[in-house]
Amino acid sequence: MFRGQNRGGWFLTSDPIRVGVAGLGRAFMLMVPTFDADDRVILTAAAAPRAESCAAFEAKYGGTAYRSVEELCADPSVEAVYIATPHQMHVDHVLVAARAGKHILVEKPLAITMKDAETMVSAASEAGVHLIVGPSHSFDPPVELAAKLIARGDFGRLRMIQAFNYTDFLYRPRRPEELRTDEGGGVLFSQAIHQIDVVRRLAGGLGKNIYAMTGAWDPKRPTEGAFTAIMNFQGGCVANLTYSGYAHFDSDIWMNDVGELGQLKSPNSYGNARRTLADIDSKDEGQLKETRTFGRGKTIMAKHNEHFGPVIALCDHADLKLTPDGVEVFGDTERSFVEAKFGPAPRRTVIDALVAAVRHDVVPAQTGAWGLASLEVCHAILRSASTGRPIDLLRQCGTTYEETTG
Description:
The chain is of the alpha/beta class. Helices cover 32% and strands 23% of the residues.
């Protein structure tokens, strides 16, 4: 079956999607194992400021590596653009891609400001292209499995969700803007967005209000490094979200010693982030971060599905515990396990969404409107912590744009 593609000619629906990559840094590195393992996509072009990364891309994937996103989006061989640039650049790059008629997969968060996010959603809609926000941990197979089990209603109504995660996030190598809240730094825009996406996915997306407190406890890392919040949903579910990027305790211990990216963790890695940071000068921190980019860094080989810490969903007749390998079901009288299969690509569900959108015009759960709604929760957490009051959520949506409220 043949279908048309904006400015891309004709193609078979079984053809791999020709993807251009904007940004060859850490975010792209985390997607490399998936791109390499999934033949439904092919990397045909890239754009990055570092010559070393561009040369590495051309050596591995062929195609062309450009020095600007504008040049990348003008390439007629590119059908969809994966935007993996820093948070503050998302708005400009999404607008360029939309104007060029390219479908878009943009890293979380969608943007830093609500105004920019609204502009991006409108631009994609006006251009008639799909805008998908991810990867985020709401794509994780155990999350998708749990969401389906809850929606099916076999366990009665969802009543409560508890999600918590303790990491050393704030002490990993950071560029200066990653420690400035107004530029998207700290744990809210980079980490809370994952937890918010997971909880919204399980509860149906339609948040009602949120009450939160944040912590900024280290003057040397002058941004929010922790938060805790209570979020109410339409339909009555309440969620507790807690995250610390200052942690000494590692909550991956509760996930069978499987790391966030699905890798097995060695006890010998304990304390590495703080130890490394203590051994370098602050001016060298950005250079250390560059060692994690494409052409210099190493890919992480997953053995299990990714996760974002312990999540438990409490229903009328069962409690569901998400694990890297599936969902443990604690029922009224019986306990069981439902597997969420791993592989062949670590983030295959992200490619599922991209293929469904680009090849079959199927709207994914994580649309631009979804990303806008999750970003609203991030800002609401900051506002609630500042004012000491609960904040109403007015831009929430379910799994389709038509469910948007407010």
